[in-house]
Specification:
With 403 residues, this protein is an alpha+beta fold. The protein is built from 14 helices and 9 strands. It has 3 domains: 113 residues, Orthogonal Bundle (Butyryl-Coa Dehydrogenase, subunit A, domain 1), CATH 1.10.540; 98 residues, Butyryl-CoA Dehydrogenase, subunit A, domain 2, CATH 2.40.110.10; 137 residues, Butyryl-CoA Dehydrogenase, subunit A, domain 3, CATH 1.20.140.10.
Length: 403
């Protein structure tokens, strides 16, 4: 019997009415998520209780169409909720961000696929974008023998999306998103890492599976805001750019993890600073001024990163793709990588100031430092690649064409 929350919860997820309600619900989970962090580290995936509570709360539905039980609150809410969750447990924040963002992209599929996917109101889809193996066009769809890598949260999902190159006859390869039921894939237990251990970002294997045509959608259609699902999902965000919605929170788990590290560092400082009340000296204990400066630097750095991501979401997450220039598109992608690296920088600033006690594997400072760096190491957040793409767009230089 399958005991995963996605199959066993008997009630429908809550439908959240407002941004403020979403933040309040996320904050209400923080203490329990922090308490379960050791369990997630041991399991190398999210504890079932984390998944059940976030499903029941309705937080996964902030990017999900109202037609299928979501709240359609949008990317600003997804960003803020991710920061709240990741500041309590970075692995939970990471998986939440991916699952929530994929609900935006899933809204692009043909209606028949959407009806299947969300027949279970607790349905979740993990993903793979790094794959091997040939996807072969056959009558009515495609067959695939291959593998996918780094599928975060896959142990808990009931669907999986995969971005793959498809060739029909002698045509040029086209990138398409495939929708695969969990029953059609094998999970390889190979997630042994020093960061984001609780995400369970494992390898999956596809053994000659069949994907019907209606469970696919072209990458170009999604990028243009013209997926078939737009016929029934009419909220403006589903016709807005990918980097404002689908990857609009990619850097935010790193920002949330760095936020959690700053909170821990502050608590540590408050417990250790003891200045006699009777002193009239304007001077702080030796070395403390530098430590306070580093704390301020890290906090300002993370707050700046958060503000950039929210500003881009406000500007672009409901604007039609046709109204967004190539330079603006590449600017959003640039800013995602830049803010992730800002979070990494903030975490490193404070970790350098944390001393030998933070070297312990059981130290929360150590854990949050590793998780921040791991989150910022995602291939889509590598600075040199995305910065070059923006510079080329800004200067009118040619860019690789999407397929």
């Amino acid at each position: 019997m399958d005991t995963r929350p996605v199959y066993t919860l008997s009630s429908k997820p809550a439908v959240i009415e407002s941004h403020d309600e979403a933040i309040e619900r996320a904050r209400g989970l923080r203490d329990r998520l922090r308490e379960r962090m050791p369990q997630g580290q041991e399991l190398r995936r999210l504890p079932d209780e984390n998944v059940a509570e976030i499903l029941e709360s309705g937080l996964y539905g902030v990017m999900k169409p109202k037609r299928y039980g979501g709240s359609e609150l949008g990317t600003e809410t997804m960003i803020e909720v991710t920061i709240e969750l990741a500041s309590a447990d970075p692995s939970t924040g990471w998986v939440y961000m991916l699952w929530a963002a994929h609900m935006w992209m899933q809204a692009m599929w043909p209606e028949k696929a959407l009806d299947e996917m969300w027949e279970n109101p607790n349905g979740l889809a993990s993903s793979v974008v790094s794959t091997t193996g040939d996807v072969v066009a056959v009558d009515g769809g495609f067959r695939w023998n291959g593998r996918g890598f780094f599928s975060s949260g896959v142990d808990h999902c009931n669907w999986l999306t995969a971005l793959v190159p498809v060739v029909r006859g002698g045509e040029r390869a086209e990138m398409r998103w495939l929708l695969v039921p969990r029953e059609d894939l094998e999970i390889i237990d190979d997630w042994h890492t020093i960061g984001l251990r609780g995400t369970g970002s494992k390898t999956v294997v596809f053994n000659d599976i069949f994907i019907p045509e209606y469970r696919t959608v072209g990458r170009l259609a999604v990028a243009a805001g013209e997926g078939p699902g737009r016929e029934v999902n009419t909220h403006p965000m589903y016709g807005a750019p990918e980097p404002a919605n689908f990857t609009g929170a990619m850097s935010v788990p790193a920002i949330g993890a760095a936020t959690g590290l700053i909170e821990l560092f502050r608590e540590r400082m408050e417990s250790r600073i003891q200045i006699p009340e009777s002193t009239n000296s304007p001077y702080l204990p030796e070395g403390l001024s530098q430590t306070l400066s580093r704390l301020a630097n890290a906090s300002a750095t993370v707050n700046s990163a958060r503000a950039v991501m929210l500003l881009n979401a406000q500007r672009y997450s409901r604007r039609p793709v046709a109204e967004v220039s190539l330079e603006e598109d590449m600017r959003m992608r640039r800013d995602q990588t830049f803010t992730a690296q800002l979070a990494r920088r903030a975490a490193n600033i404070l970790y350098e100031e944390s001393g030998g006690s933070a070297l312990s594997e059981k130290s929360l400072l150590n854990l949050f430092w590793r998780d921040t760096n791991a989150a910022a190491a995602h291939r889509g957040l590598m600075w040199d690649w995305q910065s070059e793409m923006w510079a080329k767009a800004a200067l009118g230089l040619p860019l690789p064409a999407l397929t």
